[in-house]
Hints:
The protein is of the alpha+beta class. It folds into three domains: 3-30; 35-108, wza like fold; 112-178, Outer membrane lipoprotein wza domain like (Outer membrane lipoprotein wza fold like, Roll), CATH 3.10.560.10. Helix content is 25%, strand content 23%. It contains three helices and ten strands. It has helices spanning 3-27, 80-93, 132-138; strands spanning 42-47, 55-58, 64-67, 71-74, 102-108, 112-116, 122-124, 152-154, 161-163, 175-178. The chain has a five-stranded mixed beta sheet with strand order 7-6-10-8-9, with helices on one face. A three-stranded antiparallel beta sheet has the order 2-1-5, with helices on one face. A hairpin with a 6-residue loop joins strand 8 and strand 9. The protein is elongated, with a radius of gyration of 23 Å.
Amino acid sequence: MSIVSTRPRIVAAVFAFLLGVLTVLAGTLPAQAQYRLGSGDKVKVTVLGEEELSGEFEVDGGGTLSLKAIGRIPVAGRTAAEVEQTITGMYRSSGFLRNPQVSIEVTNTRPFFILGEVQKPGSYPFVNGLTVAQAVAIAHGYTYRASTSRIRVKRQGTTEEVTATEDTPVMPGDIVRVPERFF
């Protein structure tokens, strides 16, 4: 068998291997890959070949984006991919563009909040992969009165707090509360 006849088999085997690796990796992507938009997020909308329709936009308090030619679009709670499909469909159905190609990139996420028994409670910029322990570190650590075993997190869009550990992920808009310990 010559090298020329085995080359297609090698290419096919390598392709199958890489496809398998990508499939495994896709199943292990962090929660950030499915990030849901909310008030205060900033996105860059690019409409291919349409500079006047492209630009940076902020999701307003009502959870909408206001775009040229199609108006206000509800985006709160939706992923960037879902919003891309909606915008593409709206430009197409309005007759404004025949074959729109839209992409959305989240350029700035809303902050997280930390309060209670930390050195500097307040609002801080969100960082991908943030945990409660890292949020406390950003807030300059615990006070001497902090109860590290009773930390609570309130997710944006919910009314209830959940018990958290230092390894609990923090998402944009979350409120982390470190209570005072009992003596």
